[in-house]
Design a protein that fits this description.
Blueprint: E1 3-9, H1 16-25, E2 30-36, H2 43-51, E3 58-62, H3 69-83, E4 87-90, H4 102-110, E5 116-120, E6 127-129, H5 133-150, E7 162-165, H6 166-171, H7 183-194, E8 199-203, E9 205-207, H8 218-235, H9 238-244
Parallel strand pairs: 1-2, 1-4, 2-3, 5-8, 6-9
Antiparallel strand pairs: 4-7, 5-7
Helix pairs in contact: 5-8, 7-8
Length: 248
């Protein structure tokens, strides 16, 4: 019960079996929690069938309707803490994140002093492959924007390939995390940084999905632009840390 990979899904039937098999093929004792938002394409049914051959290491949390990336991860974080996991990972289902890099994220936290390790496209050695130019410009522009506004020294603040030590998630009032789209990734890193935890970026190759479709929307972009300004403004006052710090 040491390492848990949380994978949120919505209509990922083309990817889910392969991504689960790839994680278990590492043979590094990673467990997997799929948080499925009622996928109408039958993603949840595929996971249930796979559980028969992965008892005690593959878990499924099903929610009614599409509720957003952020709430899916918060659900997974709380589940992981309740079960006693020590290292909790975020990863996409679409192979844009290579399962092989899970061990490098783990090592950064387990042996290299990081509290949060981030699979980064924008540090030396990191890169993207087969990404549409508009998405690449939007992503890199967002990373520059976040650094400029927040002063946080993380070059890939929107990255969704992350490992958290248990102590980090225990210290955060998860119910105070407000964003539900990709800005959730920024808010979690920003909160961990503000609470004094050490973040380390690990270079990865990010590949565009081969199957399925992107969940990006104009609303998600707007949430990121305005949300970053809001959390930075709030962080200038001590009430921000009181709100996001877990007092239990």
């Amino acid at each position: 019960m040491e390492k848990l990979v949380i994978i949120p899904t919505y209509n990922e039937k083309d990817n889910i079996r392969n991504i689960i098999d790839a994680v278990f093929a590492l043979r590094q004792n990673f467990h997997i929690l799929i948080v499925d938002d009622g996928s109408p394409d039958g993603t949840g049914n595929i996971v249930r069938n796979l559980q028969q051959s992965h008892s005690g290491e593959l878990f499924l949390a099903e929610r009614s309707g599409k509720q957003g990336l952020g709430t899916a991860y918060i659900h997974g974080f709380k589940w992981a803490l309740d079960k006693g996991y020590q290292y909790i990972f975020e990863m996409d289902a679409d192979f844009s994140h290579s399962p092989a890099d899970l061990t490098r994220l783990y090592d950064a936290c387990a042996t290299q002093g990081a509290d949060v390790s981030v699979g980064s496209r924008y540090v030396t050695g990191g890169r993207t492959e087969n990404w549409p130019w508009d998405r690449a410009v939007l992503s890199y522009g967002a990373s520059v924007y976040v650094r400029f506004v927040t002063w946080m020294r993380v070059k890939d603040a929107t990255a969704g390939f992350v490992c958290y030590k248990r102590q980090v998630l225990e210290a955060i009032n998860l119910d105070a995390i407000r964003f539900v789209g990709y800005a959730f990734q920024i808010e979690m890193k920003f909160t961990a940084w503000k609470l004094g935890f050490k973040l380390k970026e690990v270079p990865i190759t990010f590949k565009d999905r081969k199957e399925g479709y992107s969940k990006m929307s104009k609303g998600i972009v707007k949430e990121g632009i305005l949300g970053v300004l809001k959390i930075q403004w709030e962080s200038l006052f001590r009430k921000y840390e009181r709100r996001v710090r877990n007092s239990e």
